């Protein structure tokens, strides 16, 4: 297991259970799985299948919580009252945790999805609601995220994440998906960017809903290992 800032090691994560990709193929490559909990995508059946596969392959399970917005895949910011968002997060974590336990596993960390991921990077109220709804789970997010700083202030573990298949702006934020350069699709380019990012983050993410996600994730893992990095989970049951 790697810990935050551990040189020579990096985690490889992907979004699974979204009903749009080859979950089994990704589980054969990644070391951490962000599992859709039903609010932006996913069903009890997909959660069960991913949890079972992750346990079998010793892949760490994380709850990928979202706004309640399946129609737009959780990619639109919503003005949700803090108490409502807290309960929505608690519901998602609870459902996935129960399914994981039934398969002999456990949910080890939390990662917001889509618009919620970006909102809690800057919004203290929504970040607090996500933390309040997720118990003591460690959290994953972007460097500089309000969610991570608030988690650390509460004594909760956190991990830094980078996205080799996404473009960044000058301030280190992800470019909106409708802007030029926002999506990096060439597997070789994604893989080389993953190696660059691994110097400053604990985990690199390959989006599971991207075309050719499994092929890209495999290319990323090969390039990380070729660069001398040990690709291992950055989590443990105690984080």
What's this, in brief?
The chain is an alpha/beta fold and 239 residues long. It has helices at 23-27, 44-57, 82-102, 114-119, 124-133, 146-153, 187-197, 213-226, and strands at 9-16, 32-36, 60-65, 107-112, 139-141, 158-162, 203-206, 230-231. Strands 1, 2, 3, 4, 5, 6, 7 and 8 form an eight-stranded parallel beta sheet that branches.
Structure overview:
This protein is an alpha/beta fold. The protein is 37% helix and 16% strand. The protein has helices at residues 23-27, 44-57, 82-102, 114-119, 124-133, 146-153, 187-197, 213-226, and strands spanning 9-16, 32-36, 60-65, 107-112, 139-141, 158-162, 203-206, 230-231.
Helix content: 25-40%
Mean pLDDT across residues:
92
Please provide the count of β strands: 8
Helix count? 8
- Low confidence ranges: none
Shape: globular
Distance, first to last CA: 9 Å
Q: Structural class, from helix and strand content?
A: alpha/beta
Percentage of residues in DSSP E strands:
15-25%
Oligomeric organization of the protein chains: single chain
Main β-sheet description: 8 strands, parallel
Secondary-structure topology with pairs:
Layout: E1 9-16, H1 23-27, E2 32-36, H2 44-57, E3 60-65, H3 82-102, E4 107-112, H4 114-119, H5 124-133, E5 139-141, H6 146-153, E6 158-162, H7 187-197, E7 203-206, H8 213-226, E8 230-231
Helix pairs in contact: 2-3, 3-5, 5-6, 7-8
Write a concise keyword list for the protein shown above:
239 residues, alpha/beta, 8 helices, 8 strands, 37% helix
